[in-house]
Amino acid sequence: MPFTELETTYLAGQMLGRLATLRPDGTLQNSPVGFRLNEATGTIDIAGHTMAASHKYRNVAATGQVAFVVDDVPSTSPWRVRCLEIRGTAEAIDAPTDSAHGSAAPIIRIHPRRILSFGLDQPDTEAHSLTLSSRDV
Domain residues for 61? Predict the structure, then answer.
């Protein structure tokens, strides 16, 4: 599993992230998406209505390059932020047999190569004083 226990807990408590995909023409597309951590495969599985017809799905099928961000603001007084960024490769899977979503509907599966985070292990630290944690997996 490429994720730490703290990262796993954080991801399990979130419902929405943003997926950046590389289009075949070299430009980027960023989309809000629902996701689930697939603990069996150590990946992030993204599903959605008409997924196979989406630009993000076609972008992944064409280039396989992605970045995925999950972040939130657990407090505004005092200001507290948390963020987890996953950079890696992805695959467009037409009929997965092991989807974290529990169906055989098409998904995008992200394979982490680099994980960056802040605020997950420093909940009482002022936002501008947070330390970035990053590692290759």
Answer: 5-136
Question: 26-59, pLDDT tens digit by residue?
Answer: 999 999 999 999 999 999 999 999 999 999 999 9
**Bridge partners (DSSP) listed for residue 19:** 31, 68
Residues 96-112 pLDDT 10s: 999 999 899 999 999 99
Q: Residue 33: beta bridge partners?
A: 17
The one-letter amino acid code at 74 reads P
From residue 111, give the alpha-carbon distance in Å to each of 24, 46, 87, 126. Answer: 20, 12, 8, 31
Q: What is the CATH number of the domain that holds 54?
A: 2.30.110.10
**Nearest alpha-carbon partner for 108 in 72, 56, 69, 73:** 56
Q: How many domains does the chain have?
A: 1
pTM of the model: 0.94
